[in-house]
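User: Hi! Is it possible to get a structure for several chains at once, not just one? Here's what I have:
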Amino acid sequence: MPELPEVEAARRRAERQLVGRHLAAVSVAPDPIVFEGTSPRRLVALRGREVVAVRRRGKHLWMELDKRPHLLFHFGMAGGFRLGRAGEPRPRFWKLDLTAEDNRRLVFTDPRRLGRVRLRRNPEGEAPLAGLGFDVLEDLPPTPKIVEIFARHGAPVKAVLLDQSLFAGVGNWIADEVLYQAGLDPRRPASSLSREEVGRLRSRLHDIVRRAVAVDADSARFPRTWLFHRRWGRKPGAHTARGEPITFLTVGGRTTAWVPSRQG
DNA sequence: CTCAGTGTTCAGTG
DNA sequence: TCACTGAACACTGA
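Assistant: Yes, the chains can be modeled jointly so their relative placement is included. Here is the combined structure:
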């Protein structure tokens, strides 16, 4: 479940679970893909560190420890944190198992292994965080700046929204939701949008991300009018809550839910 | 058995 | 070199 709101929800849960506590136990599943550029030995050596903060930028999240390096996570398509207590059975697909001194526990799981766990001395100054654009929750720029960005790109506006070096944190469902609510065709070249259209897009993006974060990414609490509830599964005959038919196509290499009657 | 999939990266194209 | 596209990655579940 990892677009910005889901990662932010995970950040908050991790913060409550671990900040201000020392890591009493660290277990590492053997996995040369998910653990990129590090080793079980270096990870196990995090035992004894205090978790000082849990931070996020775009879809990346990291635990700031009392001593470097810090511990960086990316959830890929299916990664996430499971919270629990020491002694409980390990969840399926576990990769990294952290237990605090007071027995609170956080386990990183990733069934598809597209997620990554890395160690970084200066997370924000190095790859992959250094290559990210502005965080769309914390640092969404004003409309003129976005107009300027779009002017440089002839790719479909949806593909540009998904570009993490520009709009860090936007994922497939957020991009579709924004374009649906702003009434814009996802295939339109970004550079073809008028200033007014960009203003609409910006305002919808701001609102959607804030609302999703406000309910801890619990989709059952997303507004009923959101396309989100209707976009999954590519079902023929799908329609919005207002009865508008949904069409599915591929834009920017991703499944795209599009409502022609509103996004012509 | 086949295929799609809330993400990222890299090779290939023009 | 740049902008862009599409396949690959790895695995589950429908």
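Chain A has two domains: 4-130, 134-258. Residues 23 and 73 of chain A are 17 Å apart (CA to CA).

User: Great, thank you!
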